[in-house]
Amino acid sequence: MQLSNVIGLNNRSVYSDIRTYLKKFNSIHTQKNYERSLRNFFMWYKGKDLEVIQKDDLKVRNADVTEYQTFLKEHAADYSNITINNYIAPIQSLYEWLEINEYEVNSKYVKIASLPDDSEHCGALYLDEAEKMASIIREDKVKGIEKSTFIRLAYTTSFRKSTLLSIKYSDIRLDEKRGYYNVYVIGKKGKKHTVPISKELYYELMLIKEQKYYERYNDGKIFHLSTKTIQLMMDGLRIKMEFSPERNIKFHSLRNVAAGFGTLEEAKKHLNHSNIATTETYYRHINEDLSNSISLRMEEKIDDTILERLTKEELIELVLSQNYGTLTQIKKEAQERLLNRGEMVN
């Protein structure tokens, strides 16, 4: 029995040692996350599953880990800096453990600088700005219609970049009873998600199919834009729209446009979030307007009749200048009042 144990220890595989390393974490959640990160790295680095990794496969240069970090930064999934840091950390931790356990590795080779905290990794973008971006890029000589519709579908559905790039025409089906089209996708963590779009937006998507260059594709996908192309598109739009660097406008900002509409619960459903606390971060960020704070209202004494002193034109101009969330609510209430009066609303 003792001899059997000795033989077992001397014939331990790299994978069994990695399993031992993972088990030192008490949290099952941490174990799974670390294992997933290690699997992704070695599949990228060596094209191998974790179970078949050999000692020679562990040899890594600092440049390799740096390249992997860049790969994650440019990935279509649009990972945040914090997520990328979380993917790199298990690799660094494993190599420290391997070195302590007399593997021929040097843990300092996998030490690279962490990316800066970007918990608010993209700035707020508003509907009129998103619409203008789609209008500007439509004039682009190379795939202008496709890029414009890509932006429109992004801010309308709040789908992530990777999801948008995977959508096929077969994923969009008409709801004949209600008169709109449903887009069926598989979102983050395999969650099914359905978002309706207007007929007008659907017809825009169909226009892409009519472009001469589209004949070269036979995969059924709507969009054929590389990550680099999307990045260059956003870089150009930031310049043309004169966004200040402080606003930190990125493609992911388009996903958050819808957070300015409806209730928090509606935004959660639209963004396909599992946890409403996640939605609240986006919702609060996009709606952050402190002008109505309690501390300001306490000191503000304004006559209730002041609106009556405005002309009709001034009052309409004032209403139309409100943020889109407020304006939409005013329009809904106006529509309801007209319907209650028996008037037709187009």
Helical content band: 40-55%
Arithmetic mean of pLDDT: 82
Largest sheet, spatial ordering of strands: 1-2-3
Low-pLDDT sequence parts: 1-10, 287-299
Count of separate DSSP helical elements: 16
Q: N-to-C SSE series?
A: HHHHHHHHEEEHHHHHHHH
Q: Let me know the CATH homologous superfamily of the largest domain.
A: Intergrase catalytic core
Main beta sheet strand tally, sense and closure = 3 strands, antiparallel
Instruction: Assign the structural class, choosing from mainly alpha, mainly beta, alpha/beta, alpha+beta, or little secondary structure.
Output: mainly alpha
* Number of structural domains: 3
| Rg, Cα atoms, Å | 26 Å
CATH architecture heading of the largest domain: Orthogonal Bundle
Write the layout of secondary structure elements.
Blueprint: H1 2-10, H2 14-23, H3 28-46, H4 62-73, H5 81-100, H6 127-137, H7 144-157, H8 161-166, E1 172-175, E2 180-186, E3 192-197, H9 199-209, H10 227-240, H11 252-255, H12 264-271, H13 276-286, H14 294-297, H15 312-320, H16 324-340
Antiparallel strand pairs: 1-2, 2-3
Helix pairs in contact: 3-5, 4-5, 6-7, 7-9, 12-13
